[in-house]
Design goal:
The protein has helices at about 1-30, 35-60, 75-85, 120-125, 125-140, 145-170, 170-175, 180-215, 220-235, 240-245, 260-265, 280-285, 295-300, 310-320, 325-330; strands at about 65, 90-95, 105, 115-120. It is mainly alpha-helical and about 325 residues long. It has a four-stranded mixed β-sheet with strand order 1-2-4-3. Helix 2 packs across helix 6 (about 145-170) and helix 5 packs across helix 9. The termini are far apart.
Length: about 325
Amino acid sequence: MWSLHLRMWLLLTALFGFIYALLTIIGTQFLHLSGISFYIILSLVMMFIQYLIGPKIVEWTMRVKYVRRQDYPQLFSMVEDLAQRANIPVPRIGVAQIELPNAFAFGRTLRDGRVCVTQGILRLLNNDELKAVLGHELSHLKNRDVLTITLLSVIPMIMYRIAWQFLFYGRRRDERGSGNTVLIGIAAFLFYFITNLLVLYASRIREYFADRGSVLLGNKPENLASSLYKLVYGSARIDRDSLKEVEGLKAFFVNDPSCALREIRELASLDCDKSGTIDSEELSALNSKSVRLGFGDKLMEILSTHPNMLKRIKQLSSYKAAGSTYERLKV
């Protein structure tokens, strides 16, 4: 299975490499385009191609099968109810044929939205917890997060092209000004790194918004907190090879499964009665506590697409403390 996925990613790398090379040849040899403007245009074209074929890549990688109402009536009922509350079209519903417990949403537009759950999550969560997770995913669709992150991602891509242009081609064009071009290239590469961090930060912010959106759709904060807790220890039980299979798509998930072993140690203290869930009293108790992260945890969060799980559940506890009613949160 791992070799199959390796071949798939090599194929995708070769595909994008071929597209990049083809566009470069067309632009430089036939359209006589060069310089920064060409690389900016090329980055935009690559982003657009990725945006178009992205859903198919997700479906292929996650082995998604779209299901019928008669096969999963409760799942359909939950999604339809949440879509009505969110005032968005009902997305296509799929089940990913993998054991890793998680869920994800994707699609180019609201009308093209798809929400998927894995076989693992269907066995792990109860109905209230599953509905809270689905509310999180439909909030991603409602907020157009896929489009937002795609558009933001083009900025570091452009910075990278500019850095490449000045570091490797600028010197050839102007030997006397090579020092300046190299400095510009280094500055662009620095901005590439910074903008990448900003895109990751934006991704973490969108997770907080989606959590809040799930509560706005009528789900109780403790149900979402309990589901996050279960997803962490469910992911911690999955073998490393299975985690590697979905490494490139973990940004789509409710939580980052690669951080599960570290996060489970932090979250175990929240489950005071050792029931395997986080109830309303345990969540309220967290609200009165301060959460302090060590340097390593802060660094890991900065480089991650998802917020630190303890901080995330702490934020959910503030919704509970505020009453967490639909009207109160909407203000």
